[in-house]
Write a structure and sequence with these properties.
Belongs to the FliM family. It is a peripheral membrane protein. Its main location: other. The chain is an alpha+beta fold. Helices cover 34% and strands 24% of the residues. The protein contains eleven helices and ten strands. Strands 1-5-6-3-2-4 form a six-stranded antiparallel β-sheet. The chain has a four-stranded antiparallel β-sheet with strand order 7-8-9-10, with no helix packed on it. A hairpin with a 2-residue loop joins strand 8 and strand 9. Helix 3 runs antiparallel to helix 7. It is elongated and about 95 Å long. 22% of the residues are buried. The model has no long low-confidence stretch (mean pLDDT 80).
């Protein structure tokens, strides 16, 4: 039997055939024991495991959420972006699958080698540009004759969105995306050899009432240095780094030297706005604090101690009488 996962209907049909005698279980076991020849297409070399593809999908799901927030703020309209699929195919097959005239953003991601391609459906690109220029977000597909102003607006918009890609990739690599080329005809764009394996992440994109696809094409040469970080072991590992005794001692010394603000509240009072406006020099405000009651000493904004006022070396001072405890901000801080 093949390694494919059967649907529930296929499982039911198989069980029904076995129970009625249409299929023989012994024959199935015999077929399973026989050697199978699996066809392998060297032009479609599978250089990434399913685990690695899933990791790339998770990264770009985060990228899609960041893009949704970014474009929503920039365009001030309804935006929804989500990952539709992630697959590895030859570069030539990807180029054949996209429109003959489309929006192609090519950018480098140093320190990684190679370049990444972001293909944006013209419907989406024009809807974005229309919103940027104050329109309602309608799309007119005339990508073959872009003006210099239209080209600049589009390239700037997508270049600003690369900051979100940097954030999404930060879990596996610190990259610095830079736009290097803006093209409309994929035939004029040859990033890698036609048979080079690329990962294509397709994003379903909705701008207002306009829908389309954004495809991100990542060649193998870009991902090769960070392939080990795409495994599930890297994502799931929880290594705890133990601090050396010397580091702990230095940390304690620095904490002991840290300055913290201490304040003492003498009391409070409530007066009307009318009385407040009529206050003058020499007026007395009665506080709600009795003279024989201890004062509250706060560290930062958190009450920590009780004390009594006095003088020390001709300076006003406070003597700590007791510690305040209770709630989440007790003496453990």
């Amino acid at each position: 039997m093949s390694g494919e996962v059967l649907s529930q209907s296929e499982i039911d049909a198989l069980l029904s055939a076995l129970s009625t005698g249409e299929m023989d279980a012994d024959e199935l076991k015999k077929e399973q024991s026989e050697k199978k020849v699996k066809v392998y297409d060297f032009k479609r070399a599978l250089r990434f495991s399913k685990d690695q593809i899933r990791s790339l999908t998770r990264i770009h799901e985060n990228f899609a959420r960041l893009l949704t927030t970014f474009f929503s703020a920039q365009l001030r309209t309804y935006v929804q972006i989500s990952v539709a699929s992630a697959d590895q195919i030859p570069y030539e097959e990807f180029i054949r699958s996209i429109p003959k005239m489309t929006i192609l953003n090519v950018f480098e991601v140093p320190p990684l080698d190679g370049r990444i391609l972001m293909e944006v459906n013209p419907n989406i690109a024009y809807a974005m540009m229309d919103r940027m220029m104050g329109g309602r977000g309608t799309s007119i597909n005339k990508v073959d004759n872009l003006t210099e102003i239209e080209t600049k607006i589009m390239s700037n918009t997508f270049e600003r969105s690369f900051e979100n890609l940097r954030e999404a990739w930060s879990t596996i690599a610190e990259i610095d995306p830079m736009l290097t080329d803006f093209e409309v005809n994929p035939q004029f764009l040859q990033m890698v050899s036609p048979n080079e394996t690329v990962v294509v992440i397709s994003l379903n994109t909705t701008i207002g009432e306009t829908s389309g696809m954004i495809n991100i094409c990542i060649p193998h040469v870009v991902l090769e240095p960070i392939i080990p970080k795409l495994s599930v072991h890297y994502w799931m590992q929880t290594e705890k780094k133990e601090r050396k005794p010397q580091e702990i001692e230095v940390l304690e010394q620095r904490i002991h030297k840290a300055d913290v603000p201490i304040s003492v509240g003498l009391g409070s009072s409530e007066i009307s706005i009318q009385d407040f406006l009529m206050l003058d020099v020499g007026d007395v405000i009665e506080l709600n604090q009795q003279i024989d009651q201890p004062l509250t000493i706060s560290v930062g904004d958190i009450p920590k101690f009780l004390g009594q006022p006095g003088k020390l070396n001709k300076k006003i001072a406070i003597q700590v009488l007791d510690t305040l405890k209770g709630g989440d901000d007790d003496g453990e801080r």
